[in-house]
Automatic annotation (TrEMBL):
Gene Ontology cellular component annotations, sorted alphabetically: plasma membrane
PANTHER family attached to this UniProt entry: ATP-BINDING CASSETTE SUB-FAMILY B MEMBER 10, MITOCHONDRIAL, ATP-DEPENDENT PERMEASE MDL1, MITOCHONDRIAL
PROSITE patterns: ABC_TM1F, ABC_TRANSPORTER_1, ABC_TRANSPORTER_2
Ranges of residues in domain ABC transporter: 371-604
Keyword Nucleotide-binding found: yes
Pfam families: ABC_membrane, ABC_tran
Entry GO MF terms: ABC-type oligopeptide transporter activity; ATP binding; ATP hydrolysis activity
Protein name, UniProt field: ABC transporter ATP-binding protein
CDD domains (UniProt xref): ABC_6TM_MsbA_like (cd18552)
Entry's localization field: Cell membrane
Positions of transmembrane segments: 20-43, 88-108, 177-201, 283-302
Membrane topology label: Multi-pass membrane protein
SMART domains reported for this sequence: AAA
Length: 610
């Protein structure tokens, strides 16, 4: 239950629904007990129980308001109706009263569940939105350490589990009220019989709690395994070509089968407990009712201290307790699972973001002078991948970073966009440390075109205008023309409204890259970061993309990371990196003349020396 205390803040917007739900729950619980008590006059009419009472009982205040007074008053009403209207009319009247109480009970039941549903769905909507907002606010390093499938499982299946569990908790407000009103009615009829019920409830609760012990931990294990299962499915679908090419179907099938077996075993273990608890609680209830029948029957037949009608009403009330008691049992099991699910959700909600903006972070709106790396060192985990890196990128210049894989080039792009913070040193933007500015305003000054063109399963137009709230078709077309994408887009049946497919699967690599360039162009940032934007393309696509990149970089400050050196020959400054350090820097011609590492890289790629 302690995890559900965190839900209290989500209740605030739905106070009205909460109040109405509680109100209708109280009315439901009240009419649940009244509906059973209403059977008493019907029994009296049918079996003509008790002596005829023709004198109206005198009411002398609340002290006289007890079961005897009610029975006497009931006798008076029934006697009067019988003698005035006849027994059939009396029976019809009493049956109508009984029906009315049951109708009101069910109407209030419907209304209470309706407003509980509004409350529950609203809370879960807000929780789901908070979890999603937290996920997209976390730094990139968080996702490097977590399985995507497990995160998806936490954000979907676990939240649905919490929904079911929280609904059960809300229903637990109603069931105790039903039991309370029922017990009051039972005590009013016979306190002696009620002793058995009071004796039964704690014993039943104890036995059920023993049965449900361990469900929470097992539920947590299942949720974790289901997260792994979802990750396995996501990896399988993403790498299906590799799996088939390397004939690894049997390996992945066995891996999946092992996971499903473990989940199956845990589900069976929990199912065994849950399927046992309901019959156990029902049997205990019937056992007590059997004892009540024996003892209560003696009070009716031998002791004569209890009427047959009152005893039948009492048995009805006693049996009525079983339903809310079983509901509480089920709610307890759901609560255990919900607690486990919420702990997994809390993992996301409580995750710390080390890149969170400072309280007094500055908002930057323009780029005027330079970006400067001041003795920057950085490590992802243990080893430094960047060491004492110093570089100035003046406004309006193209600076290229080249070097072998793992030399730290892409790390520069990650640091300047503040996907990660430097371990040592600093990066300044017009003289201001980027850790002292808001991340949003920093990234608004930059456009990125990466090697992997990430497109979303939407229209081409929506992919180009991503993140731009107010765009028109003219702006989108203009950006596409700069990116050399307009011609191939115009060939599609729906042109700019054509869907790109999952991850852009309906487009070629060059087409995806040019749409990514158009997306960067329409943002119109003063700084462009090109992270190996042509390395995965064929020669013809590379030429088209390279032309698009040159169009895009015109009059902009650019940082180009490249494997193919043909794409950066015209850069104002080229930096050659090796093992996280700068080993050479200068223009294309200068570096060729030094006959060093850059010269060798150019020679390996068979470029023409100038």
């Amino acid at each position: 239950m302690k995890n559900f205390k965190r839900f209290l803040k989500y209740l605030v917007p739905y106070r009205k629904h909460q109040f109405l739900s509680i109100l209708f729950n109280i009315l439901y619980a009240f009419f649940s007990s009244i509906s059973m008590l209403s059977l008493l006059p019907m029994v009296k009419v049918l079996f003509e129980e008790g002596e005829k009472l023709r004198v109206k009982p005198v009411y002398n205040g609340i002290k006289d308001f007890d079961l005897n007074y009610l029975e006497n008053y009931l006798n008076y009403l029934i006697t009067n109706m019988n003698e005035t209207n006849g027994p059939l009319a009396t029976l019809i009247t009493i049956v109508g009263f009984v029906l009315s109480t049951f109708l009101l009970k069910n109407v209030f039941s419907y209304l209470s569940i309706l407003y509980m549903t509004y409350l529950n769905n609203g809370i879960l909507k807000d929780l789901r939105q908070d979890v999603y907002n937290k996920v997209i606010s976390l730094n990139v390093a968080f996702f490097s350490n977590e399985r995507k499938g497990d995160l998806i499982s936490r954000m979907t299946a676990d939240i649905n589990t919490i929904k079911v569990s929280f609904m059960s908790v809300l229903m637990m407000i109603r069931e105790p009220l039903t039991i309370l009103f029922t017990l009051i009615a039972m005590i009013a009829i016979s306190w002696k019989l009620s002793v058995f019920v009071f004796f039964f409830i704690p014993i039943s609760g104890f036995l059920i709690s023993k049965l449900s012990k361990g469900i929470k931990s097992q539920s947590g294990d299942i949720f974790s395994l289901e997260g792994h299962l979802l990750s396995n499915i996501e990896e399988t679908l993403g790498g299906i070509k590799i799996i088939k090419n390397f004939t690894s179907e049997s390996y992945f099938s066995k891996k999946f089968n092992d996971l499903t077996k473990n989940i199956n075993n845990l589900n069976n273990s929990i199912g065994k407990v849950m399927s046992l608890s309901a019959p156990t609680s029902e049997f205990l209830g019937i056992l007590v009712i059997s004892i009540l029948l024996i003892y209560g029957g003696s009070l009716v037949l031998i002791d004569k201290s209890l009427s047959g009608g009152a005893f039948m009403a009492y048995i009805g009330l006693a049996y009525q307790i079983l339903t809310p008691a079983k509901a509480i049992t089920k709610a307890n099991h759901a609560l255990q699972g919900g607690n486990a699910a919420y702990e997994r959700i809390a993992f996301i909600l409580d995750a710390e973001n080390p890149l969170k903006d400072k309280p007094n972070a500055k908002v930057i709106t323009e780029f005027n002078h330079e970006i400067k790396f001041n003795n920057v060192s950085f490590k992802y985990k243990d080893d430094f991948v960047l060491k004492n890196f110093s570089l100035t990128v003046p406004k309006g210049k193209i600076v290229a970073l080249v070097g072998e894989s793992g030399s730290g080039k892409s790390t520069i792009a990650n640091l300047i966009t503040r996907f990660y913070d430097v371990t040592e040193g600093s990066i300044t933007f017009d003289g201001v440390d980027i850790r002292d500015v808001t991340t949003k305003s920093l990234r608004e000054q930059m456009g990125i075109v990466a090697q992997d063109s990430i497109l979303f399963n939407e229209s081409i137009a929506n992919n180009i205008s991503l993140g731009i709230e107010e765009t028109n078709e003219e702006d989108i077309i203009k950006a596409a023309k700069i990116a050399n994408a307009h011609n191939f887009i115009s060939d599609f049946p729906n042109k700019y409204q054509n869907n790109v497919g999952d991850g852009g699967s309906l487009l070629s690599g060059g087409q995806r890259q040019r749409i990514a360039i158009a997306r960067a162009v329409i943002k119109n940032p003063p700084i462009m970061i090109l992270d190996e934007a042509t390395s995965a393309l064929d020669t013809e696509s590379e030429k088209l993309v390279q032309d698009a990149l040159e169009n895009m970089m015109e009059n902009r400050t650019s940082i180009a990371i490249a494997h193919r050196l043909s794409t950066i020959r015209n850069a104002d400054h080229i930096v050659v990196m090796k093992k996280g350090e700068i080993i050479e820097q200068g223009t294309h011609e200068t570096l060729l003349n030094t006959k060093g590492t850059y010269h060798n890289l150019v020679a390996l790629q068979s470029l023409e020396f100038n």
